[in-house]
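Shipment paperwork, digital attachment
Item: protein structure file
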Amino acid sequence: MDIGISDKDRKAIAEGLSRLLADSYTLYLMTHNFHWNVTGPMFNTLHLMFMQQYTEQWNALDMIAERIRALGHPAPGTYKEFAKLASIEEVTGVPKAMEMVRLLVAAQEATARTARSLVPLLEKANDQPTLDLITQRLEVHEKTAWMLRSLLEE
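Attachment content:
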């Protein structure tokens, strides 16, 4: 494979994207879980907001996995692999609505940190397609975290 990125850099980028995919999938699953289980006075608002967020996240999973494949590496695709790679802890039980929001803020921020950690490698490897993908993901995660944080203000 000769796309102008060394084998070593392609491998490192694929490993970083695999961590991002694991965080993204964990965030997706958490958001979908909260969509199903939210209750309380803000039910309708949060139910709809969570649905918009998990739908966007679902579409992003494919873009990340396909970029890993385009770099010549297999994309992780099992819960076991995601659990090993993710920086986000699984949630146990059913938190109250505002705790769900707090947990999602933390998960959005964690996913943004994972994405941002790839930027120096992508710049060094001259990998513009992955850098573009990462820039798009950062914009979504940072904006979503801000919107969720705003719900926590008194």
